[in-house]
């Protein structure tokens, strides 16, 4: 059983597009077909490996209410009932393995309510977490980030293992763009923890403002975000998620990536999701350099890197003016991502962890 998350604005769009979904299974099938956070969703591949699976989205009031109706539970408003529904779901499915990608919500206060504990409780954590959380019920916390692995142990997780997301390779069979409408693109959040990234996005926009090149920013502004520069607001095309995001990336010549800043400075650790999403979609990934990137993609052959803003600007102009070189790296990066990091392989890696 996997418990996952989704942005509330995305969920509104999803349910608006799929008003005819009347069962929980239909709601979840629509979610899966839209590829939201697809690199983290393992249940479809685990099913192919022969496991019985169940996926729920605890933060999605709509699909959770539909599930309650399916099983005959009367709903009532309030966060406490939302947590009760999760306990009901786990209790009815009785999973051998519970995999939680939102341990910030599903912590000990929820897991200790279970009448029967799953044989193995696994979490995923790659973000800052409040110090008052308790994760003593987690047998394993998976993470791609050393800082988050350390903090998970401090919050009570019994063990940590290194793990990273993947890419849904079948996306390219059905939705990969055959033409470009963006020269340079970025999709993500404008937040207070991405100061360096915010600055390079703004500087590139100002430097390219009067050129022939098309910059496409798909930004979602978070509550902790610093003041939004007016030029950013002018160019922003708004949030995109799931299938729409993958299509925009695959229709972009270059996609930018830079890392967050956590408590102890810049966290330039690979891979992050944007590196997988960009390479898998077939765009040239131009990413902030990281010390372990070469363990996943070969710089200069499968992806391209920058150490500072001047190098970012220089390489952006170079690859926009050298189409063959750009395509060679983009295609090599896509082959590498789909061959080495597809979701089937990540599901197998997850099961290796379970068996250990």
What can you see in these coordinates?
With 356 residues, the chain is an alpha/beta fold. The protein folds into 2 domains: 2-166 and 343-355, Rossmann fold (3-Layer(aba) Sandwich); 171-340, Glycogen Phosphorylase B (Rossmann fold). Helix content is 42%, strand content 15%. It contains 15 helices and 13 strands. It has helices at residues 8-17, 24-33, 43-48, 61-71, 79-93, 108-111, 146-154, 171-174, 195-208, 230-235, 242-250, 273-281, 309-320, 323-340, 343-355, and strands at residues 2-3, 55-56, 97-100, 120-124, 140-143, 160-162, 182-190, 215-221, 252-257, 261-262, 265-266, 284-288, 304-306. A 6-stranded parallel beta sheet has the order 2-1-3-4-5-6, covered by helices on one side. The protein has a 5-stranded parallel beta sheet with strand order 8-7-9-12-13, with helices on both faces. Strand 5 (140-143), helix 7 and strand 6 form a beta-alpha-beta unit. Helix 2 (24-33) packs antiparallel against helix 4 (61-71) and helix 12 packs across helix 14. It is globular, with a radius of gyration of 21 Å. The two termini are 18 Å apart. The model has no long low-confidence stretch (mean pLDDT 92).
């Amino acid at each position: 059983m996997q418990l996952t998350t989704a942005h509330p604005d995305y969920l509104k769009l999803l349910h608006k597009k799929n008003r005819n979904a009347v069962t929980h299974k239909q709601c979840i099938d629509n979610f899966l077909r839209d590829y939201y956070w697809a690199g983290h969703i393992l249940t479809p591949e685990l099913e192919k490996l022969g496991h019985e699976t169940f996926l729920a989205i605890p933060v999605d009031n709509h699909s959770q209410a539909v599930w309650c109706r399916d099983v005959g539970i009367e709903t009532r408003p309030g966060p406490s009932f939302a947590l009760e529904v999760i306990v009901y779901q786990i209790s009815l499915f009785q999973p051998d393995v519970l995999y939680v990608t939102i341990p910030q919500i599903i912590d000990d206060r929820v897991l200790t309510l279970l009448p029967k504990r799953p044989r193995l409780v696994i979490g995923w954590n790659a973000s800052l977490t409040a110090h008052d959380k308790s994760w003593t019920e987690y047998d394993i916390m998976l993470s791609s980030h050393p800082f988050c692995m350390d903090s998970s142990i401090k919050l009570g997780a019994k063990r940590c293992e290194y793990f990273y997301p993947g890419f849904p390779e079948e996306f390219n069979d059905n939705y990969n763009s055959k033409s470009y409408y963006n020269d340079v693109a970025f999709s993500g959040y404008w937040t207070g923890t991405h100061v360096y990234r915010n600055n390079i996005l703004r500087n590139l926009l100002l430097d390219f403002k009067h050129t022939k090149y098309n910059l496409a920013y798909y930004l979602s502004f978070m509550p902790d975000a610093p003041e939004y520069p007016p030029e950013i607001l002018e160019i922003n095309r708004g949030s995109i998620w799931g299938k729409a995001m993958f299509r925009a990336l695959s229709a972009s010549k270059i996609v930018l990536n830079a890392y967050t800043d956590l408590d102890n400075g810049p966290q330039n650790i690979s891979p992050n999701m944007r590196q997988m999403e960009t390479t898998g979609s077939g765009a040239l990934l131009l990413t902030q350099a990281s010390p372990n990137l070469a363990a996943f993609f070969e710089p200069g052959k499968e992806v391209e890197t920058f150490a500072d803003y001047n190098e970012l600007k220089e390489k952006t102009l170079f690859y926009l003016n050298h189409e063959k070189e750009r395509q060679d790296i983009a295609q090599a990066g896509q082959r590498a991502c789909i061959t080495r990091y597809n979701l089937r392989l990540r599901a197998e890696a997850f099961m290796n962890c379970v068996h250990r």
